[in-house]
Amino acid sequence: MKIMTGGVTQPKGFKASGIWCGIKRTGKPDLSLIVSDVPCIAAGVFTRNSVKAAPLVVTRNHLANGQARAIVTNSGNANCFTGKFGLTYAKAMAKIMAAQLGIRPNDVLVSSTGIIGKPLPIKKITAGIPELAVSARRSKLQGTRAAQAIMTTDTKVKEIAVQFKLGSKTVTIGGCAKGSGMIEPNMATMLAFVTTDVMISRPLLKKALKQAIDESFNMITVDGCTSTNDMAVVLTNGMAGNPCIRTEGKHFREFCNALKFVCLDLAKKIVKDGEGATKLFQIHVSGAPTVIAARKAARAVAKSDLVKTAAYGKNANWGRIAAAIGSVGLNVTEKTLKIKTRQMTKSHIIIQADLGIGSKKAMALTCDLTEEYIKINGKYN
Fold this sequence. Notes:
This protein is α+β, with helices and mostly antiparallel strands and 381 residues long.
């Protein structure tokens, strides 16, 4: 597998762009488009927060038939808790974007990220959409601009692409993501968009995405806050020309491994860019009775404010790790539990915990909790 520069525009037939339409006072890009030259099979995973933003409602409806062709995203405004007007505006974004691209409104997925509870400045968005569409047609190399335009408190662009062989055909998967705060398992404030030119059936695409999400985006946390706007979407246009993957054989496993790699890379970049973070750490839990139990224990450590603040203070307080694991209801005791940590002074920390009650394992990712996190979120409005 070859890791490439760039992101969502690396697979065949995908274009993208990002512009400033006036939502952000900073003048930074705030309107993004990802579009395929041909129709795509699509699948998505969404936040489990019961308060869902209007664009999520629209996108879930548009994905009901398993098809899509474009994703339009605004940043700087979440279009959440905005009532009937929010829903109307989310639908308008899809309709106007579709008209510019010459496709059906239901083939356009919509997402928003930013401040909750403020009316979406729809006039600025609709005024910017024609420029956005034209910009995407100009060049194939604007994936990074699209990735920039979905950022909020992020400090770094998050994108990756990989290329590999499926039989005799070379195929590509590209992705971009945003997220820095309000990051918590069950779809964190996180957006992730993945494109690929692999030919695969929709049922297997959905299965591959779920597996990848379970081991990546749903195993990260920054602050334990589940957002209202999170989604991860994958579009595949089949332009690589490989025989369609319809069974769970070798080619499906190869595709799954590559998709997991892309999602895990983006997930790591989100945690590393956590608001105010100075350290990234991985929690490896082994010796669990089930994978679910292993994930539960790893998440408990990752979500512990006591562990996260100890890491920031360079304090190898393993008792806090033991307490977090003991709180999840597993039959772990002082006799069975073994903990190993590396120096908390490093920027990349590894915590290993063997529960001693089984053979299953899991990994979670998190970052330290710092004063800077409080400053960022105290002023965010």
